[in-house]
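Provenance

Sequences were taken from public entries as deposited. Structures were produced by running a predictor on each sequence independently, with no templates supplied. The record for Extracellular solute-binding protein from Cohnella hashimotonis is shown for reference.
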Amino acid sequence: MKRSWVRTAALFGCAFLSACSGSAIDRGQSGSIPERKEIVFYSNRTDRTIGLGKAEQTLIDRYMKENPQIQITVRTIAPNSQYQSKIKLLQAAHRLPDLFVSSSDSTFLDPLVRSGDVQALGPEVLDGFGFPDDSLAAFTRGDRLYGVPRTRSFLALYYNRDLFKKYGAKVPRTEEELLSAGKLFEAKGLVPIAADGRGADTFKRLFNTMIERVSGTNKTLAEANEGSIAFTDSQIQTAAEHLQRWVKEGLFGDDFLNQDYGSARTLFGQGKAAMYLQGNWEADIDGDENFDPGIRSSIGIVNIPSLSGGQGKAEDIYSWYGEGILVFKDSPVKEEALVFLKWMFRQDNWAALTADDGLSLPIQPAAESDSQAAEGIRSDLTRIQMEAIAGAPPVWTPNQSNELEAARNVLVEQFVSLRLTPQQFVNELDRLGWDITTIRRLSQIS
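Predicted structure for Extracellular solute-binding protein:
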């Protein structure tokens, strides 16, 4: 998950805590009081005053207050691509932090598991915590659980309410309404939808969502992954045709392939794009002080529209369990880290806090809340959650090999750059299930 681009220079910026001199790398040089145990926690949430960064910090501060013998030192890195790169470097050196945020995607999690550097969690760690089985499956490899899932994610469109009102555009709930709004904004010199076109994740998730919008079920992609149906299934090809139509009709502008996460976010935050394609984890964008207050106050969020001729509804949510927290197996404070991790995910802690603030779809059942009514983006998220029908299948399949995931990413990049037709795209996807030579060839394409 990605955080504010404006903080990318602070790759090792200490987040919010005053006692930040220790780390998993320089432990013993921190000058901390000897009788206190230090847990080093790495996060991809740089801003500790908004969003999930604030939720992390609130709980960390509360835990240290209740347990004065524990010092939790936070290190933050953003954006997420740089965070993941740093974790991979630390893993290669066998110097991982005691606790750290991890993606459930096989390209990130699987190498950590194969190296033996992350601690397998016993069933007693989460016993009675209310986690559904499919959320735990996202962080399970073989028959062992390696992380605690913390977010249920889905793709959405953030939109500038003021721009929609100014130009008389309808907030889209159908594909035709979206295309109509796109033409209107394009004529006014605005990018209809700002999107990260330099990586595969955003468009891969959009394609996954479109499969659901075509078929009306969240099982179609899972069936293709399992081999029950082919990737050349008519519903999957139809989803590909819709996605390429959006690209060809200019919904993402002419330069989206050169935009990364930061530039797309900035385009929207500066009022140069009417919409912004990103996950619900960006719901704290209205708290980014680098954006004009008028724009921040006008941001809303809407689900991915239904598709013409499709069976899926705009109310459906195609979601996945994207982030969790892992423990370094050889941490000198592993037991203390596990105790904190279990405390953090008590239902009256993480679930209650994030649900109250409208930060994410709750995974665990949250306790009753007496928080005030949400406004703005939070109000929209509450409505989306209340309307939601669909369940939470994974992106592709969480246990797919790292090699296969990388090859599929390459195919998505080729497809949105119009180097593959929808037919060629689904044909290549289907071949990946059987042809390891194709997998290796595609995974080496830069």
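The CA atoms of residues 147 and 326 lie 5 Å apart.
Confidence is low (pLDDT under 50) at residues 1-30, 392-399, 435-440.
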